[in-house]
């Protein structure tokens, strides 16, 4: 197929299927979907099949954004049907988030893999620390969302950060809404909509950014997006996620928060250390 050796294609498919299974289990167990699980899973799997370190993180982020597309659309439509999406905010965020995503993909096209690992690692450590120290404690600082200018700034920042680390941005939206006194149901629904705004242009941007590197990329890659990775991981992770959910119900909410916090601090710390060591060496 396409001049690709069958044994190489089969090996890549099997590795990605296993990765998809673990992605679903950990997503269901720890309550974290999208790139926070997919990116590190892909990073190790692409290492197994020998993807060059100089482009490995770019391929992880781009593929993660592509995987998020169908799940974020499905989630957004479900939440919208229940009336739990803040459509006014989402409409106001369209242009700022799109601008942030474009900026993020432009930055990603010119920075090193170590720089992307550093950003992902910092986010992981900060996110994990917040879960360990605060968990679900209320962190409200104002009575409502700020004005249009500040919200545009939030949108730009969400689009930029989410596209750089390969996440849908829902976790950042949850934090913004918690700070400004909005309900968790509304933040989750709106976060799903943000995932649509981030993932589609983000995946396209990484396809374009990685086009000059096609000769160095794994089979069936479109720029910095592994098509076979996106097609295999998404359905398999959706099938295995309920297993993680069943395991999660054996633990208390705080136990899961601590588990998630430790997981992200350890994972983020590893990415931080690797990026620093790579730079030093």
From TrEMBL:
> Entry's InterPro entries?
TM_pro_TauE-like
Q: What is its main location?
A: membrane
Alphabetical UniProt keywords? Cell membrane, Membrane, Transmembrane, Transmembrane helix
Keyword Membrane part of the UniProt annotation: yes
**What membrane topology is given?**
Multi-pass membrane protein
Record's subcellular location = Cell membrane; Membrane
Pfam families the record matches: TauE (PF01925)
Q: Where are the transmembrane segments?
A: 12-43, 55-73, 93-111, 118-136, 156-179, 191-211, 223-244, 256-273
The protein's superkingdom reads Bacteria
Q: Which family does it belong to?
A: Belongs to the 4-toluene sulfonate uptake permease (TSUP) (TC 2.A.102) family.
Protein name as catalogued: Probable membrane transporter protein
Per the UniProt record, the lineage of the source organism begins with:
Bacteria, Pseudomonadati, Pseudomonadota, Alphaproteobacteria, Hyphomicrobiales
């Amino acid at each position: 197929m396409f001049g690709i050796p069958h044994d190489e294609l089969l090996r890549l498919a099997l590795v990605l299927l296993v990765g998809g299974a673990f992605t679903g289990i950990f997503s269901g167990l720890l309550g974290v979907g999208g790139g926070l699980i997919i990116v590190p899973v892909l990073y190790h799997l692409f290492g197994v099949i020998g993807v060059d370190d100089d482009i490995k993180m770019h391929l992880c982020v781009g593929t993660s954004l592509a995987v998020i597309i169908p799940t974020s659309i499905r989630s957004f439509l479900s939440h919208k049907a229940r009336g739990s999406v803040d459509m006014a905010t989402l409409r106001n965020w369209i242009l700022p988030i799109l601008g942030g995503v474009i900026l993020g993909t432009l930055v990603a096209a010119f920075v090193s893999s170590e720089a992307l690992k550093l950003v992902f690692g910092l986010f992981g450590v900060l996110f994990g620390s917040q879960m360990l120290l605060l968990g679900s404690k209320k962190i409200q600082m104002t009575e409502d969302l700020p004005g249009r200018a500040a919200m545009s700034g939030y949108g730009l920042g969400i689009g930029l950060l989410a596209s750089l680390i390969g996440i849908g941005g829902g976790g950042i939206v949850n934090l913004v809404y918690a700070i400004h006194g909005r309900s968790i149901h509304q933040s989750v629904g709106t976060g799903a909509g943000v995932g649509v705004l981030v993932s589609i242009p983000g995946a396209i941007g990484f396809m374009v950014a990685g086009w000059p590197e096609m000769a160095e990329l794994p089979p069936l890659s479109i720029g910095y997006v592994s098509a076979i990775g996106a097609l295999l991981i998404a359905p398999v992770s959706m099938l295995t996620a309920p297993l993680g959910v069943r395991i999660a119900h054996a633990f208390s909410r705080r136990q899961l928060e601590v588990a998630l916090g430790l997981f992200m601090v350890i994972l983020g710390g590893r990415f931080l250390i690797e990026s620093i060591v790579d730079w030093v060496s």
